[in-house]
Specification:
By secondary structure, the protein is of the alpha+beta class. The protein folds into 2 domains: 271 residues, Alpha-Beta Complex (Naphthalene 1,2-dioxygenase Alpha Subunit, Chain A, domain 1), CATH 3.90.380.10; 113 residues, Rieske Iron-sulfur Protein (3-layer Sandwich). The chain is 25% helix and 25% strand. The chain is built from 9 helices and 19 strands. The strands form 4 sheets. It has a 7-stranded antiparallel β-sheet with strand order 2-10-9-5-4-3-6. The protein has a 7-stranded antiparallel β-sheet with strand order 11-17-16-15-14-13-12, sandwiched between helices. A 3-stranded antiparallel β-sheet has the order 18-1-19. The longest helix has 32 residues. It is globular and about 80 Å long. Bound molecules: FE2/S2 (inorganic) cluster (FES) and fe (ii) ion. FE2/S2 (inorganic) cluster binds next to loops. FE2/S2 (inorganic) cluster (FES) binds next to loops.
């Protein structure tokens, strides 16, 4: 990462420490309606406008580095096949055979020359064209040109591959979707990564509750007192909104070592974890030698799949390095499953109790507030065209709870320092 960016991050974290363990604060508290997590109509709008109407991260570019490399996943019941073609272009298709609808490719793989449907053996080229139906006499006269795989919009930027389910082939400008965050992600160097493994977990909660647990550090010292809290901090954290996307910085306790080193020698890693929030549903946790990609995939209003992929941040780690990285992945998934997602499932169950109509997000949870503001803005404005934070004064918009003497400007930068109670 650019040295000036690293030092800006470290300076801000050290300023919070010097101020008595403060943290970045939102301008005001935020009350988020419980209905946004449970209502079927709302869920249908999210599927239509966010998951099918917006670019969604399907994988990293390194997952499909060479022609024939491919990844499959399901996004709100749409099976998706992402593959790099012989011309080097990454394309995305509905992973559905045009004969009778069977899934054409399973899992992921490298160097495929074509994809053959397991049912009756129809095969498709990497660019989706139907090669030939088996049993030519049975399909004599079939127009092959209209029976290729159904293509959707797909594009790459900063080492991320996006698909837009309702978009036409060639219509996705992934760099525009990433906006200013793209330059920083290029700097992070996702293109050098190597995929190690992917695991999925199906849980009984709305997808946004899954997202919520990644968007604040407030819970670390309490929920994770016997796990993460020994190494990483609840306080001294940063949040920066970047259009609809965001970046959260979580310091490790090891950052105390910088007190005894000149600023010019301060390293960023291993003293922070960078969490990139790519709307609507993707989180990248970047650490020194590995990165976790979390894709939060809705499966109904009250059920979601957490798809977690592990990457080494440099190609071909040593056996020892790979073991260490995989061990860290085991640990983080275990904690997230047993602690975070357990809390989120409790929260989802509590929605039926009638105890509250809103969840309250504190000023010390700016990433959480921005997540929901961005989602509301994308729902209201159709996602692709506009990423302004939602207008709090809009009738029917989420309620904002003003603090005495605080600005009501919802669009104010999230980055505020040092005004937290000790
Ligand atoms: S369903 Fe694919 S070949 Fe028949
Ligand atoms: Fe957590």
């Amino acid at each position: 990462m650019e040295r000036a960016r690293e030092l800006d991050i470290l300076d801000r974290v050290m300023a919070h420490r010097a101020a008595g363990n403060t943290t970045d604060m939102a301008p005001e508290m935020y009350a988020n309606p419980v209905a946004t997590y449970v209502e079927g109509d709302r869920y249908e709008r999210e599927v239509e406008r966010l998951f099918r109407g917006c670019p969604i991260v399907a994988c990293l570019s390194c997952d499909v580095a060479d022609p024939g490399d491919h990844v499959t996943l399901s996004i709100t019941d749409v099976p998706v096949l992402v593959v790099r073609g012989e011309d080097g272009t990454v394309r995305a298709f509905r992973n559905v055979c045009r004969h009778r609808g069977v899934t054409v490719a399973e899992g992921r793989g490298c160097g495929a020359r074509s994809f053959m449907c397991p049912f009756h053996g129809w095969s498709y080229r990497l660019d989706g064209r139907l090669v030939n139906p088996t049993h030519r006499a049975g399909f004599a006269g079939l127009d092959r040109s209209t029976h290729g795989l159904s293509e959707m919009a797909c594009g790459e930027a900063a080492g991320l591959v996006f698909v837009h389910i309702d978009g036409a082939a060639g219509s996705l400008d992934a760099a525009e979707w990433l906006g200013d965050l793209g330059a920083e992600l290029i700097d992070v160097g996702l293109g050098r990564y190597e995929h190690l493994e992917t695991r999925s977990s199906h849980r009984a909660m709305n997808w946004k509750l899954m997202g919520d647990t990644f968007c604040e550090q407030y819970h670390l010292r309490h929920l994770h007192h016997a796990s993460f809290a020994a190494a990483i901090q609840s306080d001294n954290s940063l949040y920066d909104a970047s259009g609809r996307h965001g970046r959260m910085v979580t310091p490790a306790f090891s950052i105390e070592a910088l007190d005894h080193r000149p600023r010019s020698e301060w390293p960023l890693f291993p003293h922070v974890v960078l969490s990139y929030m790519i709307r609507p549903n993707t989180i990248l946790l970047v650490q020194r030698d590995h990165t976790e990609l979390f894709q939060l995939l809705p499966d109904g209003a009250g059920h979601s799949i957490s798809r977690a992929s592990l990457y080494s941040t440099g190609a071909a780690p040593s056996d020892t390095g790979r073991q260490r990285i995989t061990g860290a992945f085991d640990m983080i998934l275990d904690v997230i499953d047993r602690e975070d997602y357990e809390m989120c499932e409790q929260t989802q169950r509590s929605f039926g109790s009638g105890a509250q109509r809103e969840l309250l997000f504190g000023r010390n949870e700016p990433g959480l507030i921005h997540f929901h503001q961005s989602i509301e803005a994308m729902l209201q404005h159709g996602g692709l065209r506009d990423h302004r934070p939602v207008d709090a004064s809009r009738p029917g918009g989420p309620a904002h709870v003003p603090l005495p003497g605080r600005s009501m400007a919802v669009a104010a930068p999230m980055r505020q320092r040092g005004d937290q109670d000790p």
